[in-house]
TrEMBL record:
Keywords: Methyltransferase, Transferase. One of its GO terms (biological process) is methylation. This is SAM-dependent methyltransferase. InterPro entries: SAM-dependent_MTases_sf, SAM_dep_MeTrfase_SAV2177_type. Its EC number is 2.1.1.-. GO terms for molecular function: methyltransferase activity. The keyword ATP-binding does not apply.
Length: 260
């Protein structure tokens, strides 16, 4: 597992937006340029983390106690296992990320916690993820699972392989399972977001800003829970959450699907 400090990484840039310290000068440079283009990016990152916690609570309220978080990133405050355990102390969480920095720091934080596992894998490697011994030790696929693909599918270009991988995760999941996705979208800011996408080319994981129809297609076979696919902070906000001032300009959509 090797970390290249000279190449910016999406995981470390995101860490910087969240106020984390697991990033290098090259990540900070790209993050600052991204911020200059889209000043609300750190807020969108925080909104993503808040969404994650709302989804985990929802899953727990439906009796779902096992979570597979793919593209889990560098652990920052309010991780999935913290939120899940607050709801159910026996919750099990598998973190999967392709980025070695994310995997190293996740392992550091989780240590030998027997109810969590960290796997370095690409989302496309569905068979590997689903059959991995550490995953099988924690996840009972006869029981519903919550699959979290939060702020990560916009790093994955459209391809038959992507849809095949999503189908495999869906086919492995029991009835009652949940799929939560948040995804960058251009909304009414196409030009600004295109400049941002160009900037991320340097990371090796270019941004793919899908439109509504393309994001909905990622939920093939899942039934969307209310309120459907909406701007991220509008997905079942907590009481007291601030309103979204200009929803059309908000750069990320979110939805949760259930297997019926
Ligand atoms: C913006 S971070 C999101 C982190 C976390 N899900 C959250 O919302 O706080 C995106 C993460 O997706 C990971 N990623 C990108 N492409 C991936 C792939 N093909 N397979 C697995 N992880 C991937 C990146 O390494 C990065 O850690």
């Amino acid at each position: 597992m090797s970390v290249d400090p000279n190449r910016p990484s999406a995981a470390r840039i995101y860490d910087y937006f969240l106020g984390g310290t697991h990033n290098f000068a090259i990540d900070r440079e790209v993050a600052e340029r991204a911020y200059a283009l889209v000043p609300d990016l750190p807020q969108v990152a925080r909104d993503n983390r808040a969404f994650l916690r709302r989804v985990v609570r929802l899953a727990a309220s439906r009796g779902v106690r096992q979570f597979i978080d793919i593209g889990s990133g560098i652990p920052t405050e309010g991780n999935v296992h913290d939120a899940a355990r607050a709801a159910d102390p026996d919750a099990r969480v598998v973190y999967v990320d392709v980025d070695p920095t994310a995997v190293i720091h996740s392992r550091e934080i989780l240590g030998d916690d027997p109810r969590t596992a960290v796997l370095q894998a690409d989302l496309h490697q569905a068979d590997r993820v689903l059959s991995d011994a550490s995953v099988r030790a924690l996840v009972d696929f006869d029981q519903p699972v919550c699959l979290l693909l939060v702020a990560m599918l916009h790093f994955i270009p459209e391809s038959p392989d992507l849809h095949e991988a999503l189908r495999r995760y869906r086919d492995a999941a029991a009835q009652g399972s949940l799929l939560a996705i948040t995804h960058g979208t251009a909304g009414s800011r196409a030009e600004q977001l295109e400049d941002l996408a160009n900037l991320y080319v340097r990371t090796g994981t270019p941004l793919v800003l899908r439109d509504r129809a393309a994001i909905l297609a990622l939920f093939d076979g899942w039934e969307l829970l209310d309120p459907g696919l909406v701007q991220l902070p509008l997905w079942r906000p907590d009481p007291g959450d601030p309103p979204v001032e200009d929803p059309d300009a908000y750069a990320a959509l979110a939805a949760v699907g259930v297997l019926t």
